[in-house]
Amino acid sequence: MTSAHSRVSFSGIKPSGEVHLGNYIGAVKQWVTFQENMKPGDVLIFPIVDLHAITVPFEPLELRERLVDLVCWLMASGLDPKKVIMFVQSENPDHPYLAWLFNCITPMGWLERMTQYKDKARVQGQRVSVGLFDYPSLMAADILLYDTHDVPVGEDQKQHVELARNIAERFNRLYGQTFQVPNVVLKQEGARLMSLQDPTKKMSKSDEDKAGCILLKDDADTIRQKIKRAVTDSGNEIHAGKDKPALTNLMVIYSEFSGKSLQEIEALYQGKGYNEFKLDLAEIVVEGFAPVQEKYRALKKDQAAVGRALSDGLKNARAISSEKIKQVQKAMGLEK
Ligand code: TYM
């Protein structure tokens, strides 16, 4: 059980595709900051959401491998399983159970409005799965099972967290005060990292243009190539703003790795051009990734550590979620 004074933060990541700079800056780095600022009694929960990953076509043989790989990346990025709860969503049946209960109180219209569903359904047509439609209901279950206060995510997930708020409020109204209503937490900069090849599209694992997406596993030369080839805007001066979306995106990456503000970066590059900026940016990213990649390689050889992290995490997660389920069953008249 979480204590009355604890603050709970929760966020998930799918084991689909490779982890990229957008996931890293928009979500994972934020989670590491939460861990650094954690106070006694706070609870941080970061599951690998495999039940969300299977809402689109996937390869069964790759799923477990990707999942273990992802845990290695999360730990290599700084998440410490002694401080945070990491587990596999499908191993905790409370998640799909609560999602079903939410299905029964969520109007279709709420899910039909979700832009992520609409975008994917447009591409997939009739093949689109019921699971994809229902994705936000499962996400609401993930979040609300733990009486979450804060949900640190990238901007593309804001609408889903708002839906979780609506579901919590509706449930509380229908069956009595049961769920904490969560807040979405977005970074000021970096909540929506864009493709390096097209600043109107977000950086994404399913991006067809691989050059637009930097992966955590990319080696130094690949990173240098991708940054060198990144599109820029007209002009040559280093300044952030709506008129320079491609450059601003690169400056956000620079800022994330250097700790310098956008204004400081502008001052640093006054009188210098895109070329010099890009060369420096590439080195900053290469240097920033080096210790993460080194730790990742060590963790890949220590599967026991990953197994331990996940089994401890599952135990801790279930201790909280099973209590919540009992409360929900009582509220809905489903208890024995
Ligand atoms: P996933 O795996 O697609 O993304 C993981 C996190 O990375 C963020 N992200 C980005 N942030 C900034 N710029 C980008 N280009 C970018 N691309 C991805 C996402 O916003 C996300 O925070 N639906 C979730 C998984 C989930 C979840 C949850 C999250 C399932 N249940 C409960 C929070 C709470 C997702 O999109 O994962």
Automatic annotation (TrEMBL):
Summary of subunit composition and partner proteins: Homodimer.
Residues reported to bind ATP: 14-16, 22-23, 154-156, 193, 202-206
Keyword Protein biosynthesis: yes
Protein name in UniProt: Tryptophan--tRNA ligase
Gene responsible for this protein: trpS
GO BP, one annotated term: tryptophanyl-tRNA aminoacylation
GO CC term (a single one): cytosol
Pfam families named among the record's database cross-references: tRNA-synt_1b
Record motif 'KMSKS' region, residues: 202-206
Catalytic activity: tRNA(Trp) + L-tryptophan + ATP = L-tryptophyl-tRNA(Trp) + AMP + diphosphate + H(+)
Residues at which L-tryptophan binds: 142
Organism: Candidatus Roizmanbacteria bacterium RIFCSPHIGHO2_02_FULL_43_11
SUPFAM superfamilies: Nucleotidylyl transferase
Subcellular localization(s) per the UniProt record: Cytoplasm
